[in-house]
Amino acid sequence: MEGHSVYQPKSGVAKWFEDRLPIVGLVHASAVAYPVPRNLNYFWTFGGILTVMLVAQILTGVVLAMHYVPDSTLAFASVEKIMRDVNYGWLLRYMHANGASMFFIAVYIHMFRGLYYGSYQAPREVLWILGVLILLLMMATAFMGYVLPWGQMSFWGATVITNLFSAFPLVGPSIVTWLWGGFSVGDPTLNRFFALHYLLPFMIAGVVGLHIWALHHVGQNNPTGVEVKDIRKDTVPFTPYATLKDSFAMVCFFIFFAWFIFYLPNFLGHADNYTEANPLVTPAHIVPEWYFLPFYAILRAVPSKLGGVLLMFGAIAVLLFLPWLDGSKVRSANYRPIYRIFFFLLVADCIYLGWIGSKPAISPYVGLSQLAAAYYFLHFLVILPIVSRLETPKPLPASIADSVLANGSGPLPGQPGLAPLVGGSTHGQV
């Protein structure tokens, strides 16, 4: 999409540099003049929040890596040393540990926003697929990071999860041996996970770059799901309209983040992980971090080990096919009343799966996890395809500008005698 303006260097030095490396022009086109739909609500700010969180996780992780020792006899003590002896080590560690949870809170909101507003539909299929790949890389990074403190839950979580790969015929045992670096979880495992945990965030950053590139190529979706028809009426420049809104949302989000860092730093962790790993003592109830609990519940929904693993990975893989499973010509659930009901049922089902995943694998929780897992797959593979093709949606607005005026958000920026609409928000949108 073309922007509202074109960058023009004002000095001779700037022009010389721009002719040889047009990086300033690229930043201007991407973060200043880039046109965004003028009806975006605050759910669209989580992309910027996630970008800042990724940078924060990388920076804190690099500093922590300078003091961490990936050795099974020293890892736990090195974490305690970071907390007690390194200047502001407690702050860096709490920022990094709680930052993982904040990252997943933001990414889940970001993904559910995409599901609600149909941001996966054409021409944004590749954009959506890249987002799912980022989720997979995040999950791998977070799992390996959870192992590094070498507490009881770290050790036994690594043992249980890596053992799952043994369910795959022929190659399974070889994968487990490679992950372990031997015949049990130990020093080689810790070194592998430390190296991969350090590397994967930079891979995530690379895929995020592709994600943003794809976004800028096809343009942003919006709460109406209607494409931009008149760039002057339907869009506003990214700066200052979107940047002001993103900045306010980031401040609110980081206040929430800071509340956990300073007042509840260990609330999202498991108590057993503050005890050093002991291969001879098995915790009464092995559970992953909270953001893995829905997938953990799906894993335990079937008695077959291989079936559970396939079902767990299938819960993520099904998202890759979402652009083709949804046959609706209308994107936004604001205009799809039947789909909107099933969307909120899906949200409730995912929360319910998370709750079940935190419970022991006994009756009645196993039966409940089977019902919840069944509904999860039914939503994507049966309900969504049928509803999207049979539902009669509400009439769409003729343009983004019309939807803004219809919702009483004020006049259009740039029209004679009319004041600009700061923030470009749509009041009354979900």
UniProtKB/TrEMBL annotation:
Protein purpose: Component of the ubiquinol-cytochrome c reductase complex (complex III or cytochrome b-c1 complex), which is a respiratory chain that generates an electrochemical potential coupled to ATP synthesis.
Transmembrane segments: 42-69, 90-111, 126-148, 160-181, 193-215, 247-264, 306-325, 337-356, 368-387
Binding note for cofactor: Binds 2 heme groups non-covalently.
Entries under InterPro entries matching the protein: Cyt_b/b6_C, Cyt_b/b6_C_sf, Cyt_b/b6_N, Cytb/b6-like_sf, Cytochrome_b, Cytochrome_b_C_euk/bac, Cytochrome_b_N_euk/bac, Di-haem_cyt_TM
Residues reported to bind heme b b566: H110, H211
Residue stretches in coiled coil: none
Topology within the bilayer: Multi-pass membrane protein
Alphabetically ordered keywords of this record: Electron transport, Heme, Iron, Membrane, Metal-binding, Respiratory chain, Transmembrane, Transmembrane helix, Transport
Organism for this UniProt entry: Hansschlegelia plantiphila
UniProt protein name: Cytochrome b
GO cellular component: respiratory chain complex III
Annotated Cytochrome b/b6 C-terminal region profile domain residues: 228-398
GO molecular function: metal ion binding; oxidoreductase activity; quinol-cytochrome-c reductase activity
